[in-house]
Design a protein that fits this description.
The longest helix has 10 residues. Strand 1, helix 1 and strand 2 form a beta-alpha-beta unit. Helices cover 33% and strands 27% of the residues. The chain has one domain. By secondary structure, it is α/β, with parallel strands linked by helices.
Length: 60
């Protein structure tokens, strides 16, 4: 039995080759959300909610 995980990726400086490869690999069998902090329009309230609602948070 496979456990589905919710994984949140926070990109501090935008996407990179390594982060893209790992996110792609993890997207098989998991629910993935990506937040790019380099984008100007960002709800920090929503970001905090996401951090607490995902099983795993990875910051790049």
């Amino acid at each position: 039995m496979q456990l589905w995980r919710k994984i949140l990726h926070i990109l501090n400086d935008g996407p990179a080759k390594l982060s893209g490869q790992i996110i792609e690999t993890q997207s098989k069998g998991n629910t993935i959300k990506i937040i790019d902090l380099s984008k100007k329009e960002l709800s920090y309230e929503s970001l905090v909610d996401d951090i607490f609602s995902y099983d795993k948070v990875i910051s790049w």
